[in-house]
């Protein structure tokens, strides 16, 4: 099955940053623990200083690593991901902040390792590319991600999304068979359908506070898939699926949230 075939279903659950309610977000452990509890996994990707694609949500390291505890990096505040090389990022622990046992550590997850994981397990993944405008050129960001996708040979198993829509336009030029999703928050673009057509997008991902039945109906009639983030309440999930929403992004991974039965 290809990702676009999966999206034809309604009631899909996406593991938001992996199984982040029971494991440190955006780690390999979070991906492993989400297996069997979701229809696809969502991760966040940005670049290290030397251009490596790494899996991190925040643009700084302090919340989800031990960077502030390391003497080696004490002068590096505010600890921006893009200020650290891949080798430096690999020196950090990505797990002890989450666990009661502070000796429970997790290594850095790279995009390459994440894609290798879904290829081996036969899974689907939504790769959100963080907006790095002003730090890296659009071309460098896109090329770094494309390189990993081509190397892993997983173009049929991924969906690319971003709040920086220029990335999506460029991805379609380089990987025309990989589906893309326009990410928005709080406000829909003007002339939404025309905007999505111009970007050659396949899906539209919107925050729960901004979704409405009329917009969902129009998008679905025009052939676009609709995802809503972040939904952890079963009753709200049912409301959204009854609207025609295809997928929800959830932290809880409760099977009662979904309807797909996968």
CATH-scheme architecture: Alpha-Beta Barrel
Counting structural domains, the number is 1
The major pleated sheet works out as:
8 strands, parallel, barrel
Mean pLDDT: 95
Describe the protein:
- 30% of the residues lie in helices and 17% in strands.
- The chain starts with a helix and ends in a 12-residue tail after the last strand.
- The model has no long low-confidence stretch (mean pLDDT 95).
- It has helices at residues 3-7, 28-34, 86-89, 111-121, 138-152, 165-174, 192-199, 213-221, 234-243, and strands at 12-16, 40-47, 53-55, 125-129, 158-162, 180-184, 203-207, 225-229, 247-250.
- α4 runs parallel beside α5 (138-152) and α5 packs across α6 (165-174).
- The protein is an alpha/beta fold.
- It contains nine helices and nine strands.
In short:
This protein is α/β, with parallel strands linked by helices and 262 residues long. 30% of the residues lie in helices and 17% in strands. The protein has a single domain, classed as Phosphatidylinositol (PI) phosphodiesterase (TIM Barrel), CATH 3.20.20.
């Amino acid at each position: 099955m290809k990702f676009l075939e999966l999206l034809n279903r309604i009631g899909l659950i996406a593991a938001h940053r992996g199984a982040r309610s029971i494991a440190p977000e955006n780690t390999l452990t979070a991906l492993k623990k989400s297996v069997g509890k979701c229809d696809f996994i969502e991760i966040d990707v940005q670049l290290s200083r030397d251009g490596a694609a790494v899996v991190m949500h925040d643009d700084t390291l302090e919340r989800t690593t031990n960077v502030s505890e390391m003497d080696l990096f004490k002068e590096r505040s505010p600890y921006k991901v893009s200020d650290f090389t891949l080798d430096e990022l690999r020196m950090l622990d990505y797990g002890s902040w989450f666990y009661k046992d502070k000796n429970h550590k997790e290594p850095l997850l790279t995009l390459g390792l994440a894609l290798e994981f879904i290829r081996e397990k036969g899974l689907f993944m939504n790769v959100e590319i963080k907006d790095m405008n002003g730090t890296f050129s659009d071309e460098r960001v896109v090329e770094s991600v494309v390189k990993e996708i081509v190397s892993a040979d997983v173009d049929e198993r991924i969906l690319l999304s971003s709040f920086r829509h220029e990335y999506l336009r460029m991805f379609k030029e380089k990987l025309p068979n990989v589906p893309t999703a326009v990410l928005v928050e709080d406000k829909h673009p003007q002339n939404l359908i025309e905007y999505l057509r111009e970007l050659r997008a396949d899906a539209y991902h919107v925050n729960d506070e901004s979704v409405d039945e009329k917009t969902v109906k129009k998008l679905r009639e025009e052939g676009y898939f609709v995802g809503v983030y972040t939904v952890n309440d079963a009753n709200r999930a049912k409301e959204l699926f009854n609207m025609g929403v295809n997928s929800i992004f959830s932290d809880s991974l409760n099977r009662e949230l979904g309807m797909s039965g996968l």
